[in-house]
Amino acid sequence: MKMISVFVLMVMVITTFSGAIFAAGKPAPQFQLPGFDGKIYSLNDFLGRPIIVSFFTTKCGYCAQELLLLNEIYHTYKENTGLQVIAINQGESQEAIQRMLLKIPYDFLTLLDQEAQLAGPYQIFGVPTAYFIDPLGNIADYIIGATNRENVMNKLSRITWYHGLRPIEIENLIKISPQIELLDFRSEKENPFPDKPNVNYHSMIDINQVLDTFDKSLIFLVFSNDDNNSRELCQQMALNGYQKVYYLLNVKDE
């Protein structure tokens, strides 16, 4: 009963004081923290990609559940959407985290906030706390406390501004979209959908043609010679505020 009362009080405190930081579109606080490799990482290193930042401690059971869930989602979506997940430990040693990893394995980036310097800027009143940060570095949503896959996926959809699609998925996209701008960056260019009146074909040379020309509210479909190049093009579009971008996954015959 005492634990429940403490939790309710914590939620009331968070609700009272967190409105400003949790406002949609507010820039996420910057950080510079070390990883296990000794390298210093900042939020700016990952701009252009959807980012989930999960604050945790090794003694938190709900944190362990969230880290495992995020690891599954990370491996499912990192290639197609560029998803970056970052776990930030609050106030513990690297040795303590490495002991935890023996029991709760995940392989996305872990950063060490041993002085809990981000607890204030990110208003960490309890763990786990997860932030969903869009490709421009703005906070889109958050989760405080225990969660589930459905909840995470609903919030993830707000920050995944570009997606890799297989040919059958592109066909479905064309069927349901009133208008699509197809941007062809391939070396050998040819309109693959000449019979689709809702697909506007554009032969492209470089990304600046897109950034200087097209309305950000449109739906875009990117074709290039390989998936890595397509993701880089989509990332540049996301950095410039384009939120409805898809690209062709170059897959073998299904």
How does this model look, in words?
The protein has helices spanning 2-17, 19-22, 61-81, 94-103, 149-156, 167-176, 207-211, 227-239, and strands spanning 32-34, 40-42, 51-56, 84-90, 109-113, 129-133, 139-144, 162-165, 180-184, 199-203, 220-223, 245-248. The chain has 2 domains: 2-156, Glutaredoxin (3-Layer(aba) Sandwich), CATH 3.40.30.10; 162-248, Oxidized Rhodanese, domain 1 (3-Layer(aba) Sandwich). Residues 1-20 have low confidence and may be disordered. The strands form 3 sheets. Strands 5-4-3-6-7 form a 5-stranded mixed sheet, covered by helices on one side. Strands 8-12-11-9-10 form a 5-stranded parallel sheet. The N and C termini lie far apart (56 Å). It has 254 residues and is an alpha/beta fold. The chain is elongated, with a radius of gyration of 21 Å. The protein contains 8 helices and 12 strands.
Write the layout of secondary structure elements.
Blueprint: H1 2-17, H2 19-22, E1 32-34, E2 40-42, E3 51-56, H3 61-81, E4 84-90, H4 94-103, E5 109-113, E6 129-133, E7 139-144, H5 149-156, E8 162-165, H6 167-176, E9 180-184, E10 199-203, H7 207-211, E11 220-223, H8 227-239, E12 245-248
| Biggest β-sheet: strands ordered side by side in the sheet | 5-4-3-6-7
Task: Give the total of beta strands.
Answer: 12
CATH superfamily of the largest domain: Glutaredoxin
Task: Give the tally of structural domains.
Answer: 2
The count of helical stretches stands at 8
Q: Which range does the strand content fall in?
A: 15-25%
